[in-house]
Amino acid sequence: MSASPALLARLASLFRSKDGALQAYLEWLEARFDATEPRLRAFLTESGRFQRVREDAERLHQRFPEPTQRPPLFGLPLGVKDIFHVEGFATHAGSQLPEQALAGDQASCVTALREAGALILGKTVTTEFAYFAPGPTRNPHNIGHTPGGSSSGSAAAVAAGLTPLALGTQTIGSINRPAAFCGVTGYKPTYARISAAGVIPLSPSLDHIGYFTLDAASAAWVAPLIVAGWTPDDINVRPLRLAIPVGPYLDKAEPTALEQFEVDCAAMQSAGHEVFELPVLSDFEAIVERHNLILAADAARVHQSWFGSFSERYHVKTSELIRRGEAISNTAYETATLEVEVLKDQLGDTMDDHEIDAWITPSAPGPAPAGLESTGDPAMNLPWTQSGMPSATLPSARSKEGLPLGIQLVARVGRDEQLLAMATQLEPCFSYPVIHGHDEFLDLHEA
Predict the structure, then answer these.
(1) Can you tell me the distance from the alpha carbon of 409 to that of 367, in angstroms, rounded to the nearest whole number?
(2) Is 123 a catalytic residue?
(3) Whole-prediction pTM value?
(4) Which of 40, 132, 148, 214 lies at a CB distance of 3.0 to 4.6 Å from 181, suitable for a disulfide?
């Protein structure tokens, strides 16, 4: 079964109102961390992590001694992908570059979450500069498989119950894909609705800031704190019109994913929602080629100075991306960015013409691949990232091998409120066995 509704809200309410609850939680979390993290390797190493977190928690209590005055995220631990600058922490971006070269002001979204009461549990592992060179993180369901990338540590940490909330980014599929591989909720907002200030970019034209939670209601609960202009939308729990984008795009999904997708679609139909097929993205290969061109050109510009000084410290995959980008002409880049706007308009018009509430797809071509050399194929996420549309992954089932499979929902540009309301509404359609353990902690301490 899916996680309890708004699990984050339940935790925060407990910490705000019950003396000793946060201390008990940190003891529980440290024991879980010590038992799990050495083999998972979701976080950057830190000496005295939980002593620091307890001291941060004590300062938080001193700042807000009155329970009724405590902020909404009071005491909730937060994992932060290591391309976000965080005051008091070095930023390495999964690279071998000197930390002084990468230093910068704290990310605005981190500041907002800290001001709301979140405690920084630590930096989570990222692929190098959020591209494809993998880090050491394992999949919590099978450590012989990738957790996905580039937000590998954040997704794995939430799935394993090491933190209930973690920040990530997506330039192709770096939130939705690892969320699917690890079996958690992943939310990528409309482009720029969460500020990228204070985050080391890969492709400023394509980078999206998002996060991972244990359930869809929690993702919606956090959103007003960091998503610009958030206005709640409950969509009145009405039947939804959900479109399957058939054609070359969906053909990228593997049989295992498609078989489960059929089961998931049937479950949504049984719940009263309309599910129908619609041919779209017929030029999918051109969309992929355009995405890769923009990404490479942007990366070359972002890394021009660093690469000039430290090229020998870059992973070969990142070096190849930058060198490819250096050869792209301004004319080719400008043409590609204009074509992105055409794609965005086409998808929006299609949704309007067919009264589509959301596109639904598998979140990844299949379950997490074996091995750690690759973080998996982001094909199922790419066109929605390119068009800046908000998307969310919900875990739906596990494969015969016990690896998670997920559903991806995609809404119109700017309709993030509807997206997370729909995700919360659809989540009970799926029967996904969670492993994070937070329900058990709450059952013991909420009474």
Answers:
(1) 17
(2) no
(3) 0.97
(4) 148
